[in-house]
Amino acid sequence: MKDFAALFTRVDQTTKTTVKVAAMADYFRTASDDDKLWTIALFSGRRPKRVITTTALREWAAERAGLPLWLFEECYPIVGDLAETISLILPPATGVEDRPLSAWINELKHLSTLDDDARKAGILHAWSILPQIERFLFTKLLTGGFRIGVSQKLMTRALARATDQDEAVLTHKLMGNWTPQTTTWADLIEAEDPTADLSRPYPFYLAYGLENLDELGPTTDWFVDRKWDGIRGQLIVRQGEHHLWSRGEELMTDRFPELAQLKDFLPDGTVLDGEILAFRDEMPLSFNALQTRIGRKTVPKKVLAESPVILMAYDLLEHHGADIRETALKDRRKALELLIKGIPGTAPIRLSPEVSGPTWDALAEERAKSRDLNAEGLMLKRRDSPYLAGRKKGDWWKWKIDPLTVDAVMIYAQAGSGRRANLFTDFTFAVKNGNDLVPFTKAYSGLTDAEFRKITAWVRKNTQQKFGPVRQVPAEHVFEIAFEGIQASPRHKSGIALRFPRMLRWRQDKPVNEINTLDDLKEMLDLYG
């Protein structure tokens, strides 16, 4: 744990990627295999489940520190992180036990099997023998909330440097449904065959938002199709079985059972990249229809009938068992067209159609039709491009339509977390409904740090009421709220929910009496919901 804490400290105290990579590479060269495996798991989001409630941790920490609970609760929002608050208020460690990271992970598993009294005793003992940083990390693991400011890409780069392996090969090895309980360092990292797990997907190729249309050259160099508004996924058919993975490396096979029939039409050794869409009468349905399927482990017949899905396929990554990602897109596309041409139209798969346009102006007109087609814009892919791993600039661009916007007034504010724990960054917004104000969305991104500091100073001076961490403020400041979609929602007082809301700008030039109304939102709902 001491070595892991040292790695965490080195990584946490710098913003330089070269320093982060060097720190991780050093660690991967020297740590034990079990600790390295758990570190990869933690850095790639494979965290242990929560062992205890945060309520119990707060009570036990305040008791051990000899503080009244109310004082602990006052400290918590100021520090902005529960584990850090606990690590700071507890008395210094009275003993030392230098157990490895993997041993502490096993301790978490053991604690989860105990009754409350024994669990409390075990956690208090751990706090008493761990120095501050290690205590902080242990508490983070207890809550299931461990995160670190390192992307999986950087971690993989460090791993490649430490093991002298190709980064792309390691990226592939780390994909899939593995956990430290189901594999070993040797099997995951050192084994020669990265496709031993037949369900393993390929790393997704991600596009950047379009920066300069004028630099792209003639449209003939580019393959263009719609940016579909669904769930990005890879469908894998190997040895008579099929697997469906999301871009976030989540196995979704059971959530979309109608796609199982595709293994009867696709040859073994096929991997398709595409978009899972709710689909009826040869048209995509809105994302709202697909949301009824998200998060369900079993799907009732009623939901299957109301929101049938297809895979809108737009790339072929593996063909007859051969990895063809290095093949030019135009050739992958030809193979994909032939593959889907032989599948009956009743099967839940379609080929993402090419969008043609002799000029960029013509394609801009096609882009303008996106909302009518329940799409988010256009995808521009260079015809001779390979299928790369991760986000790369140059060959793939997303040309999204402009977001929907409304002007609204801030009525509640809440402090952020982490480095923004001392700033009010999470706001609730309202629109007019006659003479009343109706809250309809929350947003926490879009402003600069300077703007957050300015609004924070105002909130502190103008708080009207406190509701726990939330402060009610006068309805004076207008913001332009951007969002990608709108839907009806019986759970919200306004009857409306927004998709991906964020603050586009602080409208200090606009009076409150000119903000949008609830009727404006309902009109948007009729048009785009």
Can you put this structure into words, describing what you see?
There is one protein chain. The chain is an alpha+beta fold and 529 residues long. It has three domains: 2-143, DNA ligase, ATP-dependent, N-terminal domain (DNA ligase i, domain 1, Orthogonal Bundle), CATH 1.10.3260.10; 205-400, D-amino Acid Aminotransferase, Chain A, domain 1 (2-Layer Sandwich); 404-528, OB fold (Dihydrolipoamide Acetyltransferase, E2P), CATH 2.40.50. Helix content is 35%, strand content 23%. The chain has helices at 2-12, 17-30, 33-43, 54-65, 69-79, 82-89, 101-111, 116-129, 132-143, 152-163, 167-173, 185-190, 287-291, 301-306, 329-341, 360-367, 449-462, 518-528; strands spanning 205-206, 208-209, 222-228, 231-238, 241-246, 270-280, 283-284, 309-319, 322-323, 349-351, 375-382, 390-391, 396-400, 404-415, 424-433, 436-443, 465-467, 470-472, 478-483, 485-488, 496-499, 502-506. The longest helix has 14 residues, at 17-30. The mean pLDDT is 90.
Q: Count every helix, treating DSSP H or I runs of 4 or more residues as helices.
A: 18
CATH class of the largest domain: Alpha Beta
Main β sheet profile = 7 strands, mixed
Span between N and C termini? 51 Å
Q: Which range best describes the helical content: under 10%, 10-25%, 25-40%, 40-55%, 55-70% or over 70%?
A: 25-40%
As a percent range, the share of strand residues is 15-25%
CATH architecture of the largest domain: 2-Layer Sandwich
Shape verdict: globular
Q: Can you count the beta strands? A: 22
Question: What integer value in Å does the Rg equal?
Answer: 26 Å
